[in-house]
């Protein structure tokens, strides 16, 4: 079955400030969408709103996944439906091992619990592919991890959960060249083997060139102002965003997006509900 995430005329407020101002896009199985733009223009806001961050209030527009109203779902319901967010700043969860965390998450998404043998086999395969420490399964989630380990752990979670649509928020920041290659290879393999659709926020052409985006969207002042494919990514890498400002007569925004405070208890919902 083809998965479709559809966003229409999305307006989002944070602390009474409008961040997204009528954004529309559609992501399907097997597609790779690069979300680009200067800092503070709405890229992370878009991903956090889709996944259900409580600080982001939808005042207009809709988000649907396979025809279901995402804004009426809690965070866990969005995850169970097949959405996944690889965080820019992964949380540390002391006292909870990676194996317990992942196995509980997998079981929550499926009608039948995964067998211990299959789980161990799959997590060991993922750890080896991402070249992580062999004792990772028994360590607490991200506790004492380096920045690069935390980012690779997000990819391991994605590999184990097998989402229909994954979102990666600057997952490449803090990774060295070798780790970027490991993460991109694992992500591309997921897309090729499972048909996963991907939305990825990144400022680095090196990472995007390894993913080969099928679509590129440039967000400025909460709107998609330019769209294209991998050629657009290359042009931005060469020329920056100045040419967009000049061609569209747009004034740059200096302020960054509000800091993110993660919570799993509530979700971003339509203000009208």
How many beta-strand runs?
Answer: 12
**Strands across the major sheet, in which order?**
6-9-10-3-11-12
Determine the strand fraction and express it as a percent band.
Answer: 25-35%
Structural class: alpha/beta
CATH architecture: 3-Layer(aba) Sandwich
The protein's oligomeric status is single chain
CATH class: Alpha Beta
CATH topology: Rossmann fold
CATH superfamily: P-loop containing nucleotide triphosphate hydrolases
Rg over CA atoms, rounded to whole Å, is 18 Å
Q: Cα distance, first to last residue?
A: 30 Å
Mind summarizing the main beta sheet? 6 strands, mixed
Query: What percent of residues adopt helix (DSSP H or I)?
Result: 25-40%
pLDDT < 50 runs, ≥5 residues: 261-269
Helix/strand order, N-terminal first: EEEHEEHEEHHEHEHEHEEHH
Mean pLDDT: 91
Choose one word for the global shape: globular
Please, how many domains?
1
Characterise this structure:
The chain is of the alpha/beta class. It has one domain (4-248): P-loop containing nucleotide triphosphate hydrolases (Rossmann fold), CATH 3.40.50.300. The chain has 9 helices and 12 strands. Strands 6-9-10-3-11-12 form a 6-stranded mixed sheet, with helices on both faces. Strands 2-1-4-5 form a 4-stranded antiparallel sheet. It has a two-stranded antiparallel ribbon with strand order 7-8. Strand 11 (215-220) and strand 12 form a beta hairpin. The longest helix is centred in the last third of the chain and has 18 residues, at 177-194. The two termini are 30 Å apart. The relative contact order is 0.21.
């Amino acid at each position: 079955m083809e998965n479709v995430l559809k966003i229409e005329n999305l307006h989002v407020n944070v602390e009474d400030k409008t961040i997204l101002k009528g954004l529309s896009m559609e992501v399907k199985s097997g597609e790779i969408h690069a979300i680009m733009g200067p800092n503070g223009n709405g890229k992370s806001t878009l991903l956090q709103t889709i996944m259900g961050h409580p600080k982001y209030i939808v005042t207009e527009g809709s988000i649907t996944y396979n025809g279901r109203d995402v804004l009426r779902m809690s965070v866990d319901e969005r995850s169970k439906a097949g959405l996944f967010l690889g965080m820019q700043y992964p949380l540390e969860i002391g006292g909870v091992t990676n194996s317990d965390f992942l196995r509980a998450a997998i079981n929550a998404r499926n009608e039948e619990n995964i067998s211990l043998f299959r789980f161990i086999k799959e997590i060991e395969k993922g750890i080896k592919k991402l070249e992580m420490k062999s004792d990772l399964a028994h360590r607490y989630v991200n506790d004492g991890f380096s920045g690069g380990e935390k980012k690779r752990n997000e990819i391991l979670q994605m590999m184990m959960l097998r989402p229909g649509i994954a979102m990666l928020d600057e997952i490449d920041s803090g990774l060295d060249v070798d780790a970027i290659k490991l993460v991109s290879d694992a992500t591309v393999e997921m897309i090729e083997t499972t048909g996963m659709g991907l939305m990825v926020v990144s400022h680095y052409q090196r990472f995007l060139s390894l993913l080969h985006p099928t679509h590129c969207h440039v967000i400025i002042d909460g709107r998609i102002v330019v769209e294209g494919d991998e050629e657009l990514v290359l042009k931005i890498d060469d020329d920056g965003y100045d040419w967009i400002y000049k061609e569209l007569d747009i004034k740059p925004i200096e302020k960054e997006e509000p800091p993110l405070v993660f919570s799993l208890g509530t979700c971003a919902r339509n203000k009208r509900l």
